[in-house]
Amino acid sequence: MRPLIHLVAGARPNFMKVAPLYHELVRRGETDPRIVHTGQHYDDAMSDGFFRDLRMPSPHHHLGVGGGSHAEQTGRIMLAYENLCLESRPDWTVVVGDVNSTLACAITAKKLCIPLAHLEAGLRSFDRTMPEEINRVATDAIADLLWTPSPDADLNLRNEGVPTSRIKMVGNIMIDAYVMLQDAIGKLTAYREFEVKAGEYGVVTLHRPVNVDNAASLAVLVNELEKVAKVLPLIFPVHPRTRARLEAAGFWPRLLASGLHVCEPVGYVGFMSLVSNAKLVVTDSGGVQEETTYLGIPCLTVRDTTERPITLTEGTNRLIAPGDIAISVADAMSGAFPRGKRPTLWDGYTAARVADSLAEAVVK
What we know:
By secondary structure, this protein is α/β, with parallel strands linked by helices. The protein has two domains: 4-171 and 346-363, Rossmann fold (3-Layer(aba) Sandwich), CATH 3.40.50; 183-334, Glycogen Phosphorylase B (Rossmann fold). It has helices spanning 12-28, 48-53, 70-87, 100-111, 131-142, 151-159, 173-180, 182-188, 209-212, 215-229, 240-249, 252-256, 268-276, 287-295, 310-313, 325-334, 350-363, and strands at 4-9, 32-37, 61-62, 92-96, 116-119, 145-148, 167-169, 202-205, 234-237, 261-263, 280-283, 299-301, 317-319.
């Protein structure tokens, strides 16, 4: 019987990381990979659409957890995943990224003495007010195998006392997802729906609590985006929680009247079609910092920390304050922005290296 591997996905960034590994494991046929969808992102636009784009089957197990506070969501995931493991115990549990599903399933697996691997391990913002940072640190502390995307992640883990034998730098799995679907992305030309030209517009994504959870911070963002929209068309796929905050603060009608191209969230292929043809990106996302570095597109990250510092030191990313969006866009448009380079092992073969490492671990 082939070893049973649980690949845990709960939120949109997880799906992009799980997909290349799932396809690689299926191709090799040495293990039995099963997708466990916790339901942390539970609407079609944020979940099912991404599965279709990434050519993934319907999840083998759907825990159906849904929303709630961090504690409620984490607790429900732990209960549901424990029941699944007791019914069908995996040989390994693989968690990815830094969302609540990551930590919940990691803790559950370890308490059941199931070997645990963390894909995208070692990233640190060193800002423990971020829920994601807590998830990252705690998951890495208990994982048996830590697959890292870059040398800084290896260093972070060693500084925390993780034995070198448990750390394996494999590269950036997000780039595998892009390379896997590059042809489909290139053919889509999604920007044409907004009557803009390639290279002559920007893409906006904003959803971090620090940016969107209070009216004062939202006011600054809306003001800055209005300024930019006068000189550069902006396409803004609005995250559901961001829209809810904009509506609650009374800014939604103003945003619609500002000239921004506001739309619903789009699937992975559609979103990457927009990004790959953009002049620049304004974001507070983690993964977008990596994708823009790979593509050589200026990325203005509206945060004061990043867990992906290699996108600053080697890539096209810069951290900016909310009130500096317009002036930073002007700099990027004038060419006063780093060109960057692709970091080592961001090459589209991370899933193969992960599969090699997993095969070795399973044999042991």
